[in-house]
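G., before I forget:
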Amino acid sequence: MIQRSGFATFVGQRWALLFLGLELVVFSIVGQGFFSLNGAQIVLFYGTSLFLLATAETFVIVTGGIDLSVGFMMGFSTIVSAMLVAALAKAGMAPSTAIVLTIAATLAIGLLPGLLSGFLVGRLRVPPFLATFGTGGIVYGTSLLLNSGNEVKNVPDLANVIGNSYFLYWAPGKGFSFFTRPEVARGTRVIEMIPSMLVVTAVVVIVAAFILHRTRFGRHTYAIGGNEDAAVRAGINIRRHYLAVYTLSAFFASLAGVIFMLEYITGKAEAGVSFLLDAIVGVVIGGASLYGGAGTVWGTVLGCLILSVLETGLRMAGVPTFDKFIAVGLILIFAVLIDQFFPELIHKED
Amino acid sequence: MADNSLARGRMSGPSSAVAVFGRNWAIFFLLIMIVVFFFTGKNFLTISNVQTILYSATTSLLLAFAETFVIIARGIDLSVGYVMGFSTIVCAGVIRDLYAAQFGVHWPAGVAIALGIAAGLAASVACGLASGILVARFRVPPFIATLGVLGVAYGITLHMSDGGFPIAFLPNVLTQIGNGYVYYYNPALHAYSFFAPPLGTTAAQIKDVVRLVPNVLLLIVVFLVVLWHLLKNTRFGQHTYAIGGSIDAAVRAGIDTRKHLVRVYVLSAVLAGLAGIVWVFQTGQGNFVPMGSNLELFAIAAVIIGGASLNGGKGRIVASLVGVFIISVMDNGLTLSGVETFFRYVATGVILIVAIVVDQLFPDLF
């Protein structure tokens, strides 16, 4: 191994974190209103779908696979949930019951594509790339069929109230309340803190991190990604494990879809399409290897933060948002090149 | 050339009939589909509809050919759809600007078009060089390298087209070439001509004019023959199979794998760029390819349905052609049979999965 100076090691190991810091400083200077409570919340609010899809992708990538269907599964879930909740509300059910029922039913239906992918990968040994592309095609076609390719409307208002509420409302000098706006006179300044859906996302991501890093399921996931043959010899039932991993991925994607439906009170098949690239890039920037066996949920969170700060920051700085794609592509290439040039730095902890 | 002898099937299978079917199931499937659509689809097997299928499959074919080389070399190119869009915008932009600057007054409009084509190809070569160097020199996984190039190409495309507005005001001659036919026959005048309707054809007669052989079909045939020859009979093709079969063995055999992989990715990007230029000729404007149209995924699906393997070393140009036609005939046939087009995605997904499962269950057949 080539001896590198302490500084190079320091930068090489933490380049993602340093890059995020650099982004924050630059956008705080050039972005209007970026360095504020609202700016931070916009960054994180944009990130909710991305965090969930990237978490889903993390599990699959750690096994050495890839899931191309997460965006389509998210769109499918927005369509299914929006249609269900609209139908139930139309049938005279109370909106709150309808929403709870819908969320449960959608999350259950959303597991189906994951089961299919997992079966194809685990049992029939189809390469994950193709299995999930096939599943993605089926899921996308189905979501277009369900509502003839249109967006689903007529979602009850309560969904909007839930989806765009905040965890904490603070009226300075008049007290605060959780989840609902405090009863104060009109025109009183109420500071809204932490979108509720962000709280849900954070809880789910923390649980996912726990599963991947602290449980036997997680260790088996790394084992399969590191060396599948060794995992088989160690007695891991890889068929069942692949089924579980792809179903878990489908679960996270469906959850992202339900949250999207609550936030935007609409269901559309394309809802998640643009997040697929970002989700994979986020995972890779976070230090995962597409060959499997490496990657953490926290790394993914860092990678997604880099992307959502970039997206929001560019928008606030008045740069056309489509320039984001150039930056994302360059960061991705940069991330992999660092990985290639300093392999001993990046994978030291693995 | 172990791969080719495998592909030719000079080996003892379970029984020869099953082996023949398994090896060529894609073409049997295509034939069955054509027969079914002949009965269910209105006007499916008419000259004009067959020409429509060929016409609309042109860009998909070029993308699938591009992907074939990369997949044989055990890579993957996710950027083809976006390189196509990039080349479209660059080509159309250059033609529009030169044309608007009264270029046609001093020189023939053909010069503007030729420069536009050159610019589009140059743009795609740049993309291919970037992917190729990342993959070959820096050992970046092809998936990630082409994903990065995809992002950059897509961003530049959107930037150049101000966020995806079509580039319009191009010379009409583009669509005359791109949508023209080789042979025209006007029954009213009993006159035939090549590349343009016969002189004296009136507006009322134009719908009765018989058109045969779309111009783009000539392009398809030329590329089919050239690329088939390149892959089958040249050292370039042999090295591509060798690298896909085993890169270590290829290195020991003295192949400069780095240089060769760069060439493969450049070839892939050039074919994708050509698809973009054909797209300019067909639509008469510069339309970028939106994210989510998944052209690259359909191209990969076509190549895999044709019997190539993502593990490299397998794949044929003609098989990729069959794969593309399975998707486009299905698309066209389902539409003419009155089935909603949304089924296209479902059906492609199902056929893709069936293709791979057949490949997995009977690996010795291919």
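The longest helix of chain A spans residues 238-264. Chain A has one domain: 33-340.

More on Monday.
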